[in-house]
Sequence to fold (440 residues):
Amino acid sequence: MRSYHFIVPPQLLEQRALRGSAEEREIALATLSIDHSIRAGRIQNTLLAGSAQRLQLAVRRGAGRPDRTVFDAKHRLDTHATSVLRTEEGQPAGDAAANQAFDGLGATYGFYWDVFRRDSIDNAALPLLGEVHFGERYDNAFWDGERMMFGDGDGQLFTGFTSAIDVIGHELTHGVTEATLGLRYLGQPGALNESISDVFGSMVKQYQLGQTADQADWLIGAGILGPVMQGQALRSMKAPGTAYEGDNQPGSMSGYVSTASDNGGVHLNSGIPNHAFYLAAVALGGRAWEKAGRIWYEVMVRRAVGPQAGFVQFAQATTTMAASLFGLGSAEANAVQEAWRETQVL
Amino acid sequence: MTESQGGKQLRLERSGGFAGLLLRASFQYSQLSEAERGAVEQCFQRWPGSDPAAGQPDRFSYRLELAERSALVPEAHWPEALKALLTALRPTAG
Fold:
């Protein structure tokens, strides 16, 4: 097989495109665009060569199928619960939360596999472990690096967390981010970490509902609010700051919040990159995961930004990635750039 | 308990979680039990300051303020002795 090599390594071009001066960036992007088709072919060949090994592994353990176990925390704050409620081999549990968690984990796995051929959180078939009935009246769900915990809610602020598939998609995506970009959970990298979870959580829901970008509600946490919370959801990617009474998420840099709470406002300022993704996805039309989602995903798996990345670096990386995937000056690259401009990041 | 602390309000704030909601409560420090005051003191010693710190995604964090002192306690380290205080937390804007 003939091997093509470039004098300037593509990684260096990508670095220039991301971090160079305006002129360096333009030259790097043009070069990347020219060599894109050749590199794409080379990557495809590499993938094909590696795929034989992966295929053997896949056949052995059934890649494309999740390996789920749902445990019962029995209302304790126990992150290592051992009482099993449901496994792949077992029948549905006599516990609604366990079945919802099981299904949500499966839907999230299915989204990542079907769309990106990603085999679980680590792309190496990591078993998906969940715990329901975590804590007493516990108003939260979180991924602790090994398991996903679901509280039952206190019935006032929240009615539970297993019924919303975007919540499960959100939490498992924290695992994917940990396995790829490793974004520090503080300030702007923390807000990006949060936003990526909302972006992919929303796409998991849209994928399950078979929705196009303009059909989706772009809400996060719809259906889990209790009577104390006046609103329709926890966050709106379409219109940040409007999801519930008291929602003060900004949708652009003019509303950026400086605060010491919440790891530096990670759940507030995530509204800005959330809205950028929404704008790009709707501008591009079709299904969000086909173009905008692909661009965001490639930034993650290619580790196009570092763990300390801020909004500007991430915006530049997605814009560069769009140009790399779809061509310099393409509608996709322009839509992504315009989305970041509209949110005043670029 | 020092004299200055006795008449003070202990302020508690919970932030983070999947929802990112801000909840607050305040307590008359002098009305806390001895065990609770001891646990608060341990928090000030072990988790001093109020600068935001990197944490685990979607976990809660608790801020305690008493006069000039403050502490930022990760959820996993919230003392059992202070568990009852959490029931007083209520949502607040901003």
